[in-house]
Amino acid sequence: MKKGFKVISFLFVAFFVVAFLAACNSSSTGGSSKGVSVGIVLPTKDEPRWVQDEQRFKDALADSEYTTEILFSQGSSAKEKENVETLLNKGIDVLIISPHDGEAAGAAVEAAKKDGVTVIAYDRLITNTDAVDYYVTFDSVAVGAAQAQYLVDNTNGSGVPLYLYAGAASDNNAFLFFEGAWSVLQPKIADGTFKIANSSEATALQDKSELTRDEMSKILGQVTTNWDPNEAINKAQTHLTAAGAEMKGDVAILAPNDGTSRSIADTFAADSEISSYIITGQDAEKASIQYIIDGKQSMTVFKDVRTLVKDAMGMAVEILDGKTPETTGTYDNGEIEVKAKQTDVIVVDQANVKEELIDSEYYEASEFTGL
């Protein structure tokens, strides 16, 4: 009888030990102490903007109980989906993703939603899916409008050759940027201030103040850079070779971002028939700030990614804390109206570069020459 009691006691002790160890193991992989709380997928490491974002995201959670892991898709939708699956296997509660291709990313975020993960589209909207909960963004239409307004404000005379360039057709933002730019440029094309130099599709539509998505697609098909500086060089060289003397001289150039702007600027500067050019940019990349100081790039649209990162990570922490994030508007992604938090943009040129980028401690003065 005593022997049987000892066996039963041992079994009870063994049971409680196993239960205790299981509970410990569960607490290390679940809740706020799990391996990864917030998964972040960024489009590429080949652009300075995204590399800077990586560190800023890490810094944003440095004093938090939550953890993050950041993966890069390197311009591949297949890699992007694989990255999301990797993060889902690590038990994330929130996914922040800036898609390489807004529509192709739908499959990846739908997998996240099935796992009960909250999806935040970061800087680029994910389209044609209902599996997006929030969108943190700069006002992309305002970016394009600001670029175009700079060209208008700094152009003299009439019949000024206008060269149009755009981002990747796979990126919804490229359409929003172009939409904003066209809203400002089209009236000035219609009144003869500008003459389109490098897009027959844009010329055919120059009397339309508002373009459909399909109409913009036709224009982007001719002037896309795919966000690739080398492709931008090739496009610019092709356009300049085809252009007659009447489309040279003093010109205006709508360039979508800083990387392509520098490439296009260098190409135009090398053409002896180009007397001068005004060219836009976006992202306030360090190399382009030096170009602006040197007079080789006219302006950039400064999107303070410190604020955007703060907004995105703040939203993620609110979700992890069981709160409902605050939003400022919505974006139609083709399937649903996605709740969005928008961040303002700032135009930077030689006149205010020190105030906006040095005095604000975004960059240090020692990083530039001739400031």
* Strand and helix order: HEHEHEHEEHEHEHHHEHEHEHEEEH
Main beta sheet: 7 strands, mixed
Specify the helix fraction band.
40-55%
- Under the CATH scheme, the architecture of the largest domain is 3-Layer(aba) Sandwich
What is the topology, as strand order, of the major beta sheet? 2-1-3-4-5-12-11
The figure for the number of domains is 2
How does the helix and strand content classify structurally? alpha/beta
CATH class categorisation of the largest domain: Alpha Beta
Distance between the termini: 92 Å
| The CATH topology of the largest domain | Rossmann fold
Unreliable stretches covering 5 or more consecutive residues:
5-33
Pfam family, one: Peripla_BP_4
Main location: other
Subcellular location: Cell envelope
Protein name: Sugar ABC transporter substrate-binding protein
Draw up the topology in text.
Elements: H1 2-29, E1 38-42, H2 48-60, E2 68-72, H3 77-89, E3 94-97, H4 106-114, E4 118-122, E5 134-138, H5 140-153, E6 160-164, H6 172-190, E7 194-196, H7 200-204, H8 213-223, H9 229-242, E8 249-254, H10 258-269, E9 274-279, H11 286-294, E10 300-302, H12 305-320, E11 329-332, E12 337-343, E13 346-348, H13 353-358
Parallel strand pairs: 1-2, 1-3, 3-4, 4-5, 5-12, 6-7, 6-8, 8-9
Antiparallel strand pairs: 10-13, 11-12
Helix pairs in contact: 2-12, 3-4, 5-6, 9-10
